[in-house]
Amino acid sequence: MRLSAIVQLLEEDPIMGELDGPLDPAAHFVTIYNPRRRDGRTVPFLDSNIETVLIAWHRISVIQLLPQAEVEKAIGFVRE
């Protein structure tokens, strides 16, 4: 089951994405699927067509797991 999360990276803006269930603290990387900014736009330091990214644990300061009801609120209205 995929979990929606907000991942706060050190010295970067937070990114949203999905995780493959509970995280393994013994792993060296966290796998994030469909990475995007909180407003739904692409992450500036990633290519626009990236679907999966591995981020090392030492680059992450906080991971916030979102309940399903909160996912719609986290991605707010984007005016273009």
Tags for this model:
mainly beta; 9% helix; 1 helix; SH3 type barrels; five-stranded antiparallel β-sheet; single chain; 80 residues; globular
Name the poorly predicted regions. Answer: none
Q: Characterize the overall form.
A: globular
Q: Please state roughly what percent of the residues sit in beta strands, choosing from under 5%, 5-15%, 15-25%, 25-35%, 35-45% or over 45%.
A: 35-45%
Radius of gyration, taken over Cα atoms and rounded to an integer in Å: 12 Å
Helix content: under 10%
Spatially, the strands of the biggest sheet line up as 4-3-2-1-5
The main β sheet shows up as: 5 strands, antiparallel
Task: Compute the average pLDDT.
Answer: 85
Tally of strands: 5
**CATH architecture grouping:** Roll
Task: Explain what the structure shows.
The chain is mostly beta strands and 80 residues long. The protein has one domain: SH3 type barrels (Roll). It has one helix at residues 68-74, and strands spanning 2-9, 15-20, 29-37, 52-56, 60-66. A five-stranded antiparallel β-sheet has the order 4-3-2-1-5. A hairpin with an 8-residue loop joins strand 2 and strand 3 (29-37). The longest helix is centred in the last third of the chain and has 7 residues, at 68-74. It is globular and about 30 Å long.
